[in-house]
Design a protein that fits this description.
28% strand, alpha/beta, Thrombin, subunit H, nine-stranded mixed sheet, QueA-like, 17 strands
Length: 352
């Protein structure tokens, strides 16, 4: 299967730069995966497509404001000050205060380089020392700080918005789901951004179960596929957890003939990674590099709430595995014609 099979035309002006004013008033394209039939709704209408014995799977991950800007220690220019800023993006907690990071510019971040990060009062809140350089150019840094790291990042860090978003985010919480709880992501599970507390309460009152899982989204989700034969693509790894409580809810739903509806591709990858060949779930935690593309047989997921994804991305391949490539590309063509908003802050799709 070729990479070009998953391309589609997208005018740049349809890439949403800011969140919509009210989360649940984004548009909703409803796609029947069997017939390819498309309906146009508003997201809060999702309740009309849910049934009392269904189960929604939510990813509770919370985005860390992990893009930080600092200065190299001990570097003095003729004017007596450090002339350039180092951008560091925290990617993965390796334990023992070591993190895998992206650095920019990388050439100024060799082993032994120390970078100090300050607040507005010019107090060094955090220091990172480069201790290793990985094959892909990422660095391993050792962090030094006093206090609680997440609180420091809240003070000095900014949200690591995707590269296609150029507008400044006015409210950090708009790049978090209302149910986010477990800090650790480099990007938001964006299908969940459409939910409000009121809508979730309404869904629960309908008798729909909610199972909560965690998958920390890595920036690999935005990395382009470079292999023309998609089966040669090496998928990035992400940490996930699924509890006994979530397993019990999902297993019971399947047993009773209900549908498992994943909110986002991250929830989908979590349950599909944790399931055995019969679709039975037991509590698990660890890294997953599951790559879902056409031909994959879903073991747990029945329906998916998702956003519109980048051309030739692994996420377009995932939704194509669920609904068929032709159905997806046709739905995307319709969405472009109807001027839906695309990507992280864009509109939603329900595949059933």
């Amino acid at each position: 299967m070729k990479l070009s099979d998953f391309n589609y035309y997208l005018p740049e002006e349809l890439i949403a730069q800011t969140p919509i004013a009210k989360r649940d008033e984004s548009r909703l394209l409803v796609l029947n995966k069997e017939t390819g039939e498309v309906e146009h709704r508003v997201f809060k209408n999702i309740i009309e497509y849910l049934k009392p014995n269904d189960c929604l799977v939510l990813n509770e991950t919370r985005v860390v404001p992990a893009r930080i800007y600092g200065k190299r220690e001990g570097v003095v220019t003729p004017s007596g000050v450090e002339s350039s800023t180092i951008e560091v993006l925290l990617l993965k907690d390796m334990g023992d205060n070591k993190w895998e990071v992206l650095t920019k510019p990388g050439r100024k971040c060799q082993i032994g380089t120390r970078i100090a990060f300050s607040n507005d009062k010019d107090e060094a809140k955090l220091v990172a020392e480069v201790v290793d350089v990985l094959e892909d150019g990422n660095r391993i840094v050792k962090l030094e700080y006093n206090g609680i790291l997440n609180e420091i990042l809240d003070e000095i860090g900014v949200m690591p918005l995707p590269p296609y978003i150029h507008e400044k985010l006015q409210d950090k919480e708009r790049y978090q789901t209302v149910y986010s709880r477990v800090e650790g992501s480099s990007a938001a599970p964006t299908a969940g951004l459409h939910f409000t507390p009121e809508l979730l309460k309404q869904i629960e009152e309908m008798g729909i179960k909610i199972a909560k899982v965690t998958l920390h989204v890595g920036l690999g989700t935005f990395r382009p596929v470079k292999e023309e034969n998609i089966e040669d693509h090496k998928m990035h790894s992400e940490y996930y957890e699924i509890s006994k409580e979530a397993c019990d809810i999902i297993n019971e739903t399947k047993k009773n003939g209900g549908r498992v509806i994943c909110v986002g591709t991250t929830s989908c990858r979590t349950v599909e990674s944790a399931a055995d060949e019969n679709g039975y779930l037991e509590p698990k935690k660890g890294d997953t590099s599951i790559f879902i593309y056409p031909g994959y047989k879903f073991k747990v997921l029945d329906c998916l709430i998702t956003n519109f994804h980048l051309p030739e991305s692994t996420l377009v391949m995932l939704v194509s595995a669920l609904a068929g490539r032709e159905n997806i590309l046709n739905a995307y063509k319709i969405a472009v014609k109807e001027k839906y908003r695309f990507f992280s802050f864009g509109d939603a799709m329900f595949i059933h």
